[in-house]
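Go through this fold for my students:
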Amino acid sequence: MAIYSMTAFAQARTTFEQMQILLEIRSVNNRYLDLHLRMPDELRFFEPRLRALISEHISRGKLDVRLQVQRQNTTAAAPLATEFLESVRAQLKHIREVLPETPAPAFNELFALASQHQEIEKEHWQPLLESLTAEALQELTAHRAREGEQLGTAMRDFARQMLTHIETVKNHLPEVQKEYQQRVAQRLREALEQASPEGMQYVSAEEFNARVAQEAAAFSLRIDVAEEITRLEAHVNELFHLLGAPQSEHIKEVATKHTSKKTKHNSLGKRLDFLFQEMNREANTLGSKAGSIELTQAAIELKLLIEQLREQAQNLE
């Protein structure tokens, strides 16, 4: 499964009818898809289609989208229409009848005025804006993929550290049980000697060992974390599966595929949220059953790593 960060930036621009069109998309993390669009009034007809295109390719994140049109007032622009110039002359003549000193508009002012009256034809602009949006979304997704790869690398490192602590718990449990058995035997011997100096003479070795074994068995049940360890290992393995392998050599290809159609799987970020809840549950149980300082410390380290994983996952789509 490809990993995509929700933090990214993309920009696409083109020129059409002596106008520069710029589309910028800034994305940050958010629980749901939250779109904020800014565009000129003459391009508002494209807003529903723009929202639809973004929603087809992006499932989570707060996106600030800015569509800007800048008119080029240069001598290379197309000649002004004769009808427009005749209209300006008539208006100027009418104004000078009341205000004789009114100057004629400058060259740049004429072009700016003409641009304001220039109508945008939807059938010509719609394909152009769709193509511009596709270009920006492809760049945005590629940026998200690069950021996602870095997050995935950090999270895989945290997962490997978790496996180290889990292995520490597994290796330390027999030692804890053995130490507890020795402590039980020592306390029982001291209790019998305190009750009667000859107390040990009235207790057979079989009875003494049976009592120690009974206490040790009860302790072993209290600190039995085999199920918790098994589930934690399964959760970590699932995390590796979800994060997949590093994707640096496939970022461009994956980004293109990602923008070609909406992903069919559930949001990776939401799936990881649930997985970390389950991990935290097992770590809490492990901590409550800890029978030594080493096991308690291992449980604390696991909880810290899970929290670090959760913080990283908050920025994943």
